[in-house]
Design a protein that fits this description.
- By secondary structure, this protein is an all-alpha fold.
- The protein has one domain.
- The protein is built from 7 helices and 2 strands; from the N terminus they run H-H-H-E-E-H-H-H-H.
- The protein has a two-stranded antiparallel sheet.
- Strand 1 and strand 2 form a beta hairpin.
- The longest helix has 43 residues.
- The radius of gyration is 23 Å and the shape is elongated.
- The two termini are 34 Å apart.
């Protein structure tokens, strides 16, 4: 009897570990390139041990290898979806930064970002760096782990089924991501669009001024000033968007 219980505990711990590792591969902060795979595996193992210590011991495990492998696959999908749902909040800020950087004309000197898995503009990197800082300040990483622990209660290990309800919730989160990106980028985008209109009027009124030569540095300067002025005003919106990271985890697991 004790051997069967120990086997059931090891089986459930393996399922929790796989879900948590897949979650860390897609969740914000944990998925960054600075967090090397060895660190991800170590964190997943340590957190799994802590979670299993707080969970009641399972009654019995399965002896079917095929069923266990299918459960492992389901846990990988569940963890990846949970991490993706939490990542949507950061994707909204990333989209806003990319749109602002492109409108400012800073998309040309795009460099390899230490925070993003792909290339991004300087403004996009700055947005992501500040979002990461504020996410840590509001203890968003704690909320993420707490939300993951709640998913184990709402969706026990080995019980994941991808249904239409989960897909509908992901689609709703994606639409919210785009609306949040528009809210964050709108003040700077409006300022830069009005700057384009002003330059166009100047070029029509005073044809001797080389607008195409002066337009780029003017837009960069106006964009930087507008970013400094509007950033304190956008902080409540950005914090609200970041708080959605943990909320999305709970919504998907319901």
């Amino acid at each position: 009897m004790e051997v069967r219980v120990a086997g059931a505990v090891i089986e459930e711990a393996a399922l929790v570990f796989v879900r948590l590792l897949a979650f860390m591969m897609t969740a914000p902060l944990f998925r960054e390139r600075a967090v090397v795979p060895v660190v991800k595996i170590g964190l997943a193992a340590g957190i799994t041990y802590a979670l299993m210590a707080a969970r009641p011991a399972p009654e019995a495990g399965t002896t079917d290898l095929v069923r266990f492998l299918l459960a492992m696959t389901g846990e990988m999908i569940a963890g990846a979806l949970i991490g993706f749902a939490s990542l949507l909040a950061f994707q909204a800020i990333e989209i806003a930064g990319a749109a602002v950087g492109m409108e400012m004309g800073l998309s040309f000197p795009a460099s390899v970002s230490p925070l993003l898995p792909s290339q991004g503009t300087v403004v996009e990197q700055w947005y992501m760096a500040m979002a990461t800082l504020f996410f840590l300040l509001i203890n968003g990483h704690h909320s993420l782990l707490f939300g993951f622990q709640r998913t184990l209660e709402a969706l026990p290990p080995g019980a994941f089924v991808l249904g239409g309800l989960a897909i509908d919730r992901l689609l709703a989160m994606t639409s919210t991501m785009f609306s949040s990106a528009i809210q964050i980028a709108l003040p700077l985008m409006a300022t830069l669009i009005f700057t384009d209109l002003a330059l166009a009027l100047i070029s029509r009124m005073i044809t001797q001024i080389p607008v195409f030569v002066l337009g780029m540095p003017i837009k960069i300067a106006v964009g930087l000033v507008a970013l400094i002025v509007t950033w304190p005003l956008m902080l409540p919106t950005i914090v609200r968007v970041l708080q959605q990271a943990a909320d999305n985890v709970m919504i998907l697991a319901r």
